[in-house]
Amino acid sequence: MKMRESYTMSEEQNPHAIRSREMLKKYPEIRELMGYDPTSALYITFITAAQLSIAYFLSIRSAPWWGILLAAYLVGAFFNHALFTFVHEAAHDNIFKKKVTNRIWGIISNIAQCFPSASGFKTFHLIHNSYMGEYDHDADLAFHWEAKLVGNSWWRKSIWFLFFFLIEIIRPARMKKGKTFDGWVMINIAVIIATNAIIYFTLGPIAIVYLVLSTLFSTGLHPVGARWIQEHYTYKEGQETYSYYGPLNLIQFNIGYHNEHHDFYKVPWSNLRKLKAMAPEYYDNLYSHSSWTGLILDFIFNSKRDLYQRIIREKANSTGQAPASSAALPTMGK
Length: 334
What we know:
The protein contains 14 helices and 4 strands.
């Protein structure tokens, strides 16, 4: 089947800006769900310790290459993907009240991932929330050359998934908002270089290989990698954002509740289920996914799927402002 020639252009306003305002009028108690969840710091500590322990075990056992691969794919990918959930929570200042504390815990979440992504992600993800679907500002959208190169070929899509983490690093270069480098990014890089060196010299090279593979699998050719497709790839005409309500939310800290997140990004992960239950009429009629495994297989092997399967717009909403859920709350980049 012939692939799409470009993205689908929409003249509609950002649906989250509209829906969040309506919901707040009908359910003002939603504001009680907004805030912070410091237990996230405990989960970050536990997951990081678990990953370093597995890395140490593989190292002292001199695990063969296939054993490292299996451990990274079957266990490590789930752990490091969960750490991305907390990088995401820290980006929205949803762990602690103080912004600097959230910055620090975002960087701590990177230790077992071996890549300094937290500070840069904060900048570009908050822009994504406010300017969703704008090609010049939304780093979640593929480059035009990227979409054309990958096409709808199953093997090219597989390679794209495999190296998706590296692709995400270069996408912000297209954006006209946000700084690629600032003081926090440099601190993030310095800390992760230092912790990588400590891991290498104390736990050995096998430990580093395991942790790096865990990160690459967690964003790519793996069931949890389907999240990058689940969130905004069009599976129902006119719908821009999609949630995943499958069982992996239990170990991935509700990261699948993406419509809910975009509507109210100051609601921490632990309250997203409550948000959906509070206003089911706004979410139950939306198309959603129930299987990340089924989704990634469909996207790869279905020739109808390609990187242009997205909706874009010239402006995020009529006012150019963030959704109502951010009103009177911390603004992006601060």
